[in-house]
Design goal:
The chain is of the alpha+beta class. 52% of the residues lie in helices and 8% in strands. It has helices at residues 2-19, 23-42, 72-75, 79-89, 111-119, 130-134, 148-161, 164-169, 171-189, 198-215, 221-247, 252-276, 289-294, 304-335, 337-350, 366-378, 412-416, 432-435, 460-477, and strands at residues 96-100, 103-108, 196-197, 389-390, 395-397, 400-402, 407-410, 478-481, 493-495, 499-501, 506-511. A four-stranded mixed sheet has the order 1-2-7-4, with helices on one face. A hairpin with a 2-residue loop joins β5 and β6 (400-402). α1 runs antiparallel to α2 (23-42). The relative contact order is 0.13.
Length: 512
């Protein structure tokens, strides 16, 4: 390859000396002489990162993209839709190759191939970007490489932190936080504008719920606020980091470093204080995740540094998903008054109006569960399943060979909007899940918003329990209507770290 490139570079020198060409013409002929090299480097399926033909012997189809950048410049805030359209136009829904800068990526928009990737041992690791490493996620369950330490974290998460017993024991926290949210709703409705800005209420409630679940009560307003700002800054940094790395905009790494120091300071201090208080004593009646970690047997104990990383990841990943999903659900309730009424009639029938909905009521609220599933289908918070996988060795996916070191992604949004999989996929219709019970916990890849396989989201049960309980209580207490008669809800979306409503939801809440 190098000898051939040098040969092409000698051509314009020969032309200038032989034909005495002018400089503009020389420039033009130079470009022409480099054309074969350009074609060989970039005009290949998948683009720049796939330029070595040995990496793609089966010719996985994919867009060429831009030199050096791949398809980064064209993704924008609707990457899930653009990738779905590309895969469909190229007949590459099962597997498509593309480049993100110098990173090789394959993506699937098909449930069978998604299962191969998410449940295959060859994709048991995650690609650890520098942003994740700088923000300490490499030592937490989401990004820790497969091995003894990761298996240890996963065992603690599945058997203790997010066990059914633990999720049930935290109902009191969820109920208490929901009381605070409904009180805030009533206050905003009593204000001059008589309009509720739900996003702020849901974000604050979600943050408070996570803080109490992770650290217990008594954290204090100032610390909660600090951690809330840290989470927000972390989202911004991860969103900016890819472009900052490519164009060397500067400051992003320094900001990550400063944020990490702040997290270590605040969370580390909380851990140390709890340890001094005897937080590892099981008899102290605390029921939060930190107390659980401190009470583990000696052989299972985490170092303080690893404990800070694990707790920080719980706060970071647990705060936005619940709030974003609930905002989408409430937007649909305001838009579809008939569906809201049907859900409220179900709540009145099985719970009544004289007591609050409890976790034990949720199994009887079949239509409410169907609403949550339909929103997860139409508006999945992680349309690209957020955290990708990494091929640890060469592996065949379907008929194609995927080389080691390739990032693999699943376009869940494309799967949940595929008319060959779902009837009338663009229609919001919860009844489809009354007609067929499609699970959402990862066993059916037609709808797996929390992922699947070994790297499935460990907190999925806790998150779903929170969303279902809060939704039931909000619908039980209020009728949700548009701010003005005839005004439509804006369902425009924006993909950041998660898929959000582009315009924050405002509406009116009328006490039932």
């Amino acid at each position: 390859m190098k000898m051939r490139a040098n040969f092409f570079l000698l051509i314009p020198c020969f032309l200038v000396s032989f034909y005495n060409l002018s400089l503009p013409l020389l420039f033009f002929t130079s470009l022409l002489s480099l054309l074969p090299l350009f074609v060989k480097l970039w005009l290949v399926p998948g683009g720049f990162a796939w330029r070595n033909p040995e990496l793609n012997p089966g010719k996985i189809p994919g867009p060429v993209g831009w030199p050096f950048l791949g398809i980064l410049p064209v993704l924008g805030s609707h990457a899930h839709r653009k990738l779905a359209a590309l895969a469909s136009s190229m007949g590459a829904t099962r597997l498509m190759a593309f480049s993100l800068g110098s990173t090789r990526v394959v993506i699937t928009s098909h449930p069978e191939t998604a299962k191969e990737i998410l449940c295959g041992s060859a994709f048991s690791d995650r690609p650890v970007k520098e942003s994740a490493r700088l923000l300490m996620f490499e030592r937490a369950i989401g990004f820790a490489p497969s091995g003894k330490y990761w298996r240890h974290l996963r065992r603690i998460a599945m058997n203790q932190m997010f066990s059914p017993k633990r999720v049930s024991s935290l109902e009191g926290v969820r109920q208490r936080v929901c009381d605070e949210m409904t009180e805030k709703v009533s206050k905003e409705m009593a204000g001059e504008k008589r309009i509720v800005g739900l996003r702020g209420i849901l974000q604050r409630g979600s943050l408070r719920n996570v803080m109490e679940s992770v650290f217990g009560g008594g954290l204090g307003f100032e610390r909660e606020e600090k951690l809330g700002f840290m989470v927000k800054e972390g989202y911004e940094l991860i969103g900016e980091f890819q472009w900052g790395t490519i164009f060397q905009l500067g400051g992003v790494k320094r900001r990550c470093h400063r944020l990490t120091l702040k997290v270590k300071g605040v969370v580390g201090q909380i851990v140390e204080e709890r340890r001094r208080e005897g937080g590892g004593n099981i008899d102290n009646a605390r029921n939060d995740f930190l107390s659980l970690l401190l009470s583990l047997p000696t052989e299972d104990q985490l170092s303080d540094a690893d404990m800070v990383a694990v707790l920080w990841e719980m706060i970071f990943r647990g705060t936005d998903t619940v709030a974003i999903l609930l905002e989408w659900i409430m937007a649909r309730m305001v838009l579809h008054q008939d569906i809201q009424t049907k859900a409220q009639e179900e709540i009145d029938e099985h719970v009544g109006k004289h007591r609050q909905v409890q976790d034990s009521d949720i199994p009887n609220l079949i239509y409410l569960q169907a609403i949550v599933k339909e929103v997860l289908r139409v508006h999945p918070p992680g349309p690209l399943l957020s955290w990708a996988r990494l091929a640890t060795h060469d592996v065949h996916v379907g008929k194609f060979l995927v080389p080691a070191g390739t990032t693999a992604m699943v376009n869940m949004w494309a799967i949940t909007h595929d008319p060959t999989i779902w009837k009338n996929p663009w229609k919001f219709r919860p009844e489809r899940f009354m007609e067929e019970d499609v699970p959402v916990m990862g066993s059916d890849l037609r709808l797996a918003p929390f992922g699947s396989g070994r790297r499935v989201c460990p907190g999925k049960s806790l998150g779903l329990a929170t969303v279902q309980l809060w939704l039931a209580r909000l619908l039980q207490q209020y009728k949700w209507v548009p701010t003005t008669s005839g005004k439509q809800v804006d369902l425009s979306e924006c993909l950041k770290l998660s898929l959000e409503l582009k315009t924050p939801l405002t509406c009116r809440a009328i006490v039932r």
